[in-house]
Amino acid sequence: MRAKRDEPGDMPGRDTGPLDPYPPVTSGRGGWIGGPGFIFLVLILLILAGAGLYLQATGQLAGLLAQGGQIIDLGRTPDPATTSASEDGPALQSMASMDAAPAPAAPVKPLVLAAMGPAELLEKRPPPKSLRLVPGEFDQPPVLRFSRPALFLGTRARIGVLVTGLGLNRGVTAAAIADLPPEITLSFSPYAPELAAWIDAAQAYGHEVLLDLPLEPRNYPQDDPGPLGLLTALNAEENLRRLGELLKESDGVAGLATQFGDRFLADETALRPILSELGQRGLGLVTSADLADATTGMADAPLHIRVDEMLPQDASRQALTAEIEGLLAAAKAKGKVLTAVPAYPLSIAALTSLTAAAKDRGMALVPATAFLNRQGTAP
C-alpha cells in the first residue's frame, strides 16, 4: 500500500486531524466592553447623575453653580473698591466703611427674591428649630409673652429697627423673614393674605411680630387706610369694632405699629378709646407721634414708644446708605434709637448687614419691644 501523499498546505509528516469549528479568538480588540472596567465606569456615571439630581432637588445645586458664575447676590453689600456705579445709582457701600471702621461681613446666604408663601418658605428654607421665638408664660400680656428678649446689653448703645407693611408682597416678605437678623421686628399689614401663617413663619425665624394699625392720615381720602381703617369721623363703637376685626387673625403679635395716622393720632377724643382697648388687651404700641398728652391720667394706657425716625419709602441705595449711617451715628450719640423702615427690596437688602455694622461699632441691635414703657421712653 502506498503512503498518503501530503496535500498542499499540510505540514510534512504531521497529521492535522479534523478541523475545529470554534477556533479561539486571538485578537484583543473589543475585549474591554463588558469587562470590570466598563462596569466600574457605568457605576461612576450613575453615582454622579444621582448626586446631581439630589443637589437640584435640595436647592444646593444653584449655590454651587453661583460660586463660579455671575449670579448676583442682592443680600451682599458690594465692595466699593471694586464695584462701579450702575444705571440705578452708585454702588451700596459698606455702612461701617464710612467712618474708616472695618467693613461688616456680608451675609453668607443670598437674599430671597422668589415670591413664595409662608408654607413654601418654611419648606424650602427651613430655619433651625432653636431659632423659633418661644412665647412666655400664658398668663403674661402679649406685649411681654410674644416679645423677643434683649439680653446681655450692658452699656452698649441700642438700635431698634421695625420693618412695616409686610405680607402684601410675598417676595419682599419672604426676604425680610428669612434674611434679616432675628433682632429686627417685623410688622404685617392686617390686609395681608395668610396673615396667621406669615406670623408663624416670622416667629419660626426668631422675629417678634407686630401688626400695622391703619389710621386716618391728614390727606385722607387721597391716602386711604382701607376698609378697616380707624377714622376721626366714626364714633368710638365703630372704631373699636374695626379694631376687633383687625385683631382677629393676629394671635401671637406683641403689639401694633401705626401706619399713616397723623390726623387720628392728633385727635384725643378718637384716640383715647383705642389706647384704652389696647392697654386692656395687653398689646404694645409703636407710633409716629408722641402720646404723652393723650395718655395723661389713663390707668390702662398701653406700653408705647415713638419712633425716632422713619426711612423714606422711595429711597435709592445711596440714600438708604446715608440714612442707615445716620441711624448708627444717632445711636452712638444718644445711646438708643428706634427707626421704622418700609418694606421694599432695597431697604431689606440694606438692612441685612446692620447687625455686623452695629457690632463692629460696639452697639447692640435689639427688638422694638425693648424700648417700650408707659412713659414712651426707652428703659
Automatic annotation (TrEMBL):
The entry's keywords: Membrane, Transmembrane, Transmembrane helix
Stretches the record annotates as Disordered: 1-23
Keyword flag Transmembrane: yes
Coiled-coil parts of chain: none
Superkingdom of the organism of origin: Bacteria
InterPro entries listed in its UniProt record: Divergent_DAC, Glyco_hydro/deAcase_b/a-brl
Record bears the keyword Transmembrane helix: yes
Pfam annotation, one family: Polysacc_deac_2
Protein name: Divergent polysaccharide deacetylase family protein
Species this chain originates from: Dongia rigui
